[in-house]
Specification:
The chain is built from 13 helices and 13 strands. With 383 residues, it is an alpha/beta fold. Strand 4, helix 7 and strand 5 form a beta-alpha-beta unit. The protein is elongated and about 75 Å long.
């Protein structure tokens, strides 16, 4: 390195920016990173250049006693300062309009994840801007946003590399938008459509084999929609808890062979599911490790017997508040399910203390827990 001072000595300020960035990345403690930026203007610039994520205190994951109203100007100042962001969470910025995303045209090219949960003023125009200026985006969360099928189509066409999409409570999204998303984004791995009343599931028909995670809680799924959901063949985690009436055999399509890789299945509060569907799934999904059947009152002895006989990889089973779990059904689970480690069970009116103690005597390797779990499986962004 040349010595600009001419005194023959080398100072740390003579180091180029890339070396200083490397030094900054090596700092582990948060206080050290903050102190780095307080040293001088140049080091503050290095700190800003190295920042890869930004999340406001109004985000639900960062609760604050102070209510912040993030507007377009705030976002402009921050995106100008942090120009190399890969993760941006605007969760809870309820008053931020579509125009607030304008700065993404200058600094959005490296963004991979954007969270817009409860950004009630973000519409299809906002999705259009993200599609135009964020070509590297792989994950987006639009929980409770006012977007439609048209905006979702624009986003899917522009960002074909999308892998994780959260559309929960997007009430204007239908199977049409879902079809475009599942067919244009060939790397799609996880989709959440919880409480989307306009979705029946048929939009997933012909989806990619990469689609491993679907959360369709409280949706108006139809039998043909269930067939569409499993059509890709790669599904590993499925949540259809609290779905509306499908009939006793409506979920049987899960066990027809297309979901043979399924590992986690949540049927909580699927009161209408019957023995026919349970038997089909128990036989057709041999890799199941966790099955939540809490409050599934339609499951009788034949269903429990089939689970005991066929679910040889089951590790966790939830049977909380199942009215038709009888002592014979509990015995079938006890005598089968050889890899079972945890049984979630409480408020089962037909199961006596004697039956429970007998279960414990024969299966000391199984822990019986009285707690009731609502959400099962890993986070949706892990797929």
């Amino acid at each position: 390195m040349e010595d600009p001072s001419g005194d023959g000595r080398t100072y740390i300020m003579h180091l180029p920016d890339d070396c200083l960035c490397h030094i900054f990345q090596g700092l582990r403690g948060c206080s050290d990173r903050v102190s780095f930026g307080l040293t001088c203007h140049r080091w503050l610039k290095i700190q800003n250049l190295c920042r890869r994520s930004l999340e406001f205190q109004c985000s639900f994951s960062q609760p604050s006693q102070t209510t912040l109203n993030i507007n377009s100007y705030h976002l402009y100042r921050l995106l100008t300062r942090f120009q190399h962001l890969e993760f941006l969470s605007l969760c809870g910025c309820t008053e931020l309009p579509d125009s607030g995303l304008n700065q993404l045209q200058y600094y959005g090219s490296k963004l991979q994840t954007i969270i817009l949960d409860c950004c009630f003023r973000i519409t299809d125009n906002g999705l259009s801007q993200i599609g135009a200026w964020c070509p590297s985006i792989t994950s987006i969360s639009l929980y409770r946003c006012n977007v439609t099928d048209a905006g979702l189509e624009i986003l899917a066409n522009a960002c074909s590399t999308l892998m994780h999409v959260n559309l929960s409570y997007c009430l204007q999204i239908s199977d049409c938008g879902l079809k475009v998303l599942s067919q244009r984004c060939s790397q799609l791995g996880a989709v959440k459509i919880s409480c989307c009343s306009g979705i029946t599931g048929v939009g997933f028909r012909g989806c990619s084999a990469t689609l491993a995670y679907i959360d369709a809680e409280s949706c108006n799924l139809r039998p043909e929609g269930i067939t569409g959901i499993v059509s890709g063949g790669g599904l590993e985690i499925l949540n259809v808890s609290s779905i509306n009436w499908l009939g006793q055999g409506g979920l049987a399509a899960i066990g027809t062979g297309y979901a043979s890789r399924l590992k986690i299945l949540n049927f909580r509060m699927c009161r209408s599911v019957g023995d026919a569907a349970i038997m089909a799934i128990a036989k057709g999904c041999p890799l199941l490790k966790e099955w939540n059947l809490a409050i599934c009152h339609g499951v009788g002895f034949s269903g429990w017997e089939s689970i005991g006989l066929n679910c040889n990889n089951l590790v966790k089973l939830h049977v909380n508040r199942c009215r038709n779990l009888c002592p014979r059904g509990l015995d079938a689970i006890r005598d089968g399910c050889r890899r079972l480690l945890v049984l979630y069970m409480n408020q089962n009116p037909r199961i006596s203390t004697y039956s429970i103690e007998l279960f414990k005597l024969y299966r000391g390797d199984v822990e019986i827990k009285e707690e009731e779990i609502i959400c099962v499986g890993p986070d949706w962004k892990d797929h």
